[in-house]
Amino acid sequence: MADPITDVLVTPVAFADPPLLNAAGVHQPYALRAVVRVRTASGRTGLGETYGDAPHLALLRRAAPVLRGLDVFDTNRMVARVAAELRGADAPDAHGLTGASSPTKSLARVVSPFEVAMLDLAGQLTERPVHALLGGKVRDAVPFAAYLFYKWERHPGGEPDGWGAALDPDGIVAQARAMVARYGFGSLKLKGGVFPPDAEIAAVRALRTALPDLPVRLDPNAAWTVRTSLRVARELDGDLQYLEDPTAGRQAMARVAADAPMPLATNMCVVAFDHLPEAVRLGSVQVILADHHYWGGLRASMRLAAMCETFGIGLSMHSNSHLGISLAAMVHLAAAAPALSYPCDTHTPWAVDDVVTSPLSIVDGSVRVPDAPGLGVTLDEAALDRLHRQYLECGITARDDAGYLRTVRTDFRRQVAAW
Amino acid sequence: MADPITDVLVTPVAFADPPLLNAAGVHQPYALRAVVRVRTASGRTGLGETYGDAPHLALLRRAAPVLRGLDVFDTNRMVARVAAELRGADAPDAHGLTGASSPTKSLARVVSPFEVAMLDLAGQLTERPVHALLGGKVRDAVPFAAYLFYKWERHPGGEPDGWGAALDPDGIVAQARAMVARYGFGSLKLKGGVFPPDAEIAAVRALRTALPDLPVRLDPNAAWTVRTSLRVARELDGDLQYLEDPTAGRQAMARVAADAPMPLATNMCVVAFDHLPEAVRLGSVQVILADHHYWGGLRASMRLAAMCETFGIGLSMHSNSHLGISLAAMVHLAAAAPALSYPCDTHTPWAVDDVVTSPLSIVDGSVRVPDAPGLGVTLDEAALDRLHRQYLECGITARDDAGYLRTVRTDFRRQVAAW
User: Fold this and answer.
1) How far apart are CA B148 and CA B369, in angstroms?
2) Strand ranges across the sheet with B141-143
3) Which of A145, A224, A370, B387 is 20 to 30 A from residue B331's alpha carbon, by CA?
4) How far is the C-alpha of B292 from the C-alpha of B108, rounded, in Å?
């Protein structure tokens, strides 16, 4: 049953993305991803999906050839080979929403789609779903939260995307109602850090009034000072399931956590294993948003999940703009992680395009866990070609929310401790 | 490729064991183990090995039927079913060398041999070694330490076992030389807690003088007070690779660790995941001896290994008297755990019997990692029958080192903070 890897293809794609506002700026008309295809001697193809920014893409392409000859189960050796090949290379990360880049973080990002593709292959080979290779699903459906964004009605010069503008509490409530109506979400997450805190407090309260049964989270991406974070936390006492990254850094987060009435969550100040000891010591966070794309893959994320359980930290899941390969990987991970304690984030509703033939769908706020072999999704070759051409034509080579917003608001600077 | 579990056999065995002295007493003439056979519809058999004490055996037998119908990959569901079946049952542990029993600890012990047997089966099914299912080996050979014991020449009324008596530094040095000559060990571990500390200090110094190139560890199984632990630690500065469980409990260990010149190791005060937060907070230990038999299996031990790496704690491996199924499982685990930072413990040299046809062998102090499918060992049915009859005839139903020593030294009490 030997089936060594013969080649690895890395294909950048661009897909239409609405003008979603955040502390770093606004989403550009196209979001970038890279689709990884790992092929074996028997002709099988395993799929992975990751960031499509140029510096990351360069590392992926540099690393890809070293997978040749590996057994699809041998992910430890894959990591060792990639580490040896990259020798501490670093892929700077322009938007910086998960903090400064580093060689360790870059390595974790590069190996992740390869590991996912290898698990997809191992699943196909054993006729088992990926979750079975992680120990087996502990739930049959994975709940997701509606991911609400302040947004414009359209990109400058573009067509309306159909979701309408959302620039005040009424707009956010309308967006929430539309998203809940379409997908049945049972909880809400608002991306904040866009307007002054009082405006975002008003939006949260409007959501609580309009949809009182749905828990709400707020994520200002570290746009606030400690003092502001504590004021908002007190004002929203009873209204937030958790408050995500109100301020920057494990020390400042610990100062907020000490007095905030709700749990603090993060996908910014604890984004690598070497951040955990300090976060545990200081009590910086009560919830970690796992993300296999930057934690080093699905097995590494399972280890993170175990650490959260052991150290009494809640577990949720982070999302960037993504396509259906990532959604499938996220669902298998969430299915197999006993510690998952909150619905996951996903940008799925915001992406109209996909690279898989039958994307997993969100029904009643959840995705049914696929039990087909591997990831359970199939590449749509025509769509991949189309989105790759779109990548070549769109002229975007790295995410730059700030630069894009500055084309409209020339004085914009990223909101870090802005309030 | 579906191959559901059809039945599970749990067979207690007894095998001849030399009179090895420790803080709890002395090893009885027979050590007990239980051999677990998990069978599938296709006729495959997966092997596991665990403790053979009666209370544990009762829980194993109660749990075994719930595995029926499970897929061999579905270890998470196995754990959930066993937990539901045992409903918080506890198997008291007479010798107490890993602390008081608890429902959580008992559950981890019961699921472990089932998980190992399921991984053995998953490996056979995928034609991959068990280490491949844990991410793949990161080393081709696993180093072990010579496990030295104070011992009598023979059991009362028995024949000499050929190792001779070891009741003073000369005896320990002779034992070390014999064991190194036979197995090529590159490091030494002395089980202490038997004689007053100065006698054991003298034994360590004698080992250092006789075999200066071989690192030495000393494990008195918490026989000392904090004050004595610190005195011994200072006297053996430069002579010990690590000092294992000098005293009892995470708080007392932390007080020793704060001033001891060498790392402290444990397989007594951190033996379950819920012990880790306090141990990390207090700095109780610098090395944890993993043991899949009580940490809940191989995947759980891999999670422990990841936590050790993340929290800057060294990783070694603990051993109880065991046979060749456990040795194989230990080797696959050690092969796949990148964080392993010390040679592992094993009682292999002390066991003359086995239940596998071709036990893995220790050559040049290491065991070559098997790459055959599954665990890579085959049950010797005739030997299993013989050792099972021996179990039925020997009259021992639970390990009782203290009770056995009291048949010789009527006033013996277990050495806890005795010095």
Assistant:
1) 24
2) B141-143, B366-368, B362-363
3) B387
4) 9
pLDDT in tens, A42-78: 999 999 999 999 999 999 999 999 999 999 999 999 9
Classify each residue of B68-87 as buried b or exposed e, where b means 16 or more C-beta atoms within 10 Å of its C-beta. eebbbbbbbbbbbbbbebbe
Cβ A56 vs Cβ A110: under 8 Å: yes
DSSP one-letter code for A65: G
**Which residue in B105, B191, B275, B292 is the catalytic one?**
B191
Of A409, A416, A402, A411, which is closest to residue A26 (Cα–Cα)?
Answer: A402
Mind listing the pLDDT tens digit for each residue in A286-322? 999 999 999 999 999 999 999 999 999 999 999 999 9
In a mutagenesis test of the B interface, which of A303, A304, A371 is the best target, namely the one with the most B β-carbons within 10 Å? A303
Global ipTM: 0.94
Q: Give chain B positions within 8 Å (CB) of A126.
A: 1, 73, 122, 125-126
β-strand pairing of A141-143 with A366-368? antiparallel
pLDDT digits (tens, 9 = 90+) for B368-411: 999 999 999 999 999 999 999 999 999 999 999 999 999 999 99
Q: Tell me the three state secondary structure of residue B289.
A: strand
- B311 contact residues in A (CB cutoff 8 A): 276-277, 280
How many other C-beta atoms can be found within 10 angstroms of the C-beta atom of residue A103?
Answer: 14
- Taking an 8 Å cut-off on Cβ atoms, the answer to whether A75 and B136 are in contact is yes
DSSP string over A235-280: HTTTT-SEEE--SSSHHHHHHHHHH-SS-EEESSS--SGGGHHHHH
Q: Which of B244, B260, B214, B193 is nearest to B416 (CA)?
A: B193
Q: What are the two backbone dihedrals, phi and then psi, of residue B42, each rounded to the nearest 5 degrees? A: -80, -5
Neighbours of A157 (CB within 10 A): 6
Helix ranges, A87-154 (H):
103-126, 130-133
Return d(Cα B345, Cα B67) in angstroms, integer.
31
Please, what sign has the CA dihedral across residues A354, A360, A363, A367?
A: negative
Q: What is the pLDDT of residues A314-323, one digit of tens each?
A: 999 999 999 9
Query: B329 with B49: CB under 8 angstroms?
Result: yes
Global pTM value = 0.96
3-class secondary-structure state, position B37: strand
Which whole-number Å values give the CA distances from B344 to A152, B220, B263, B335, in the listed order? 61, 17, 16, 11
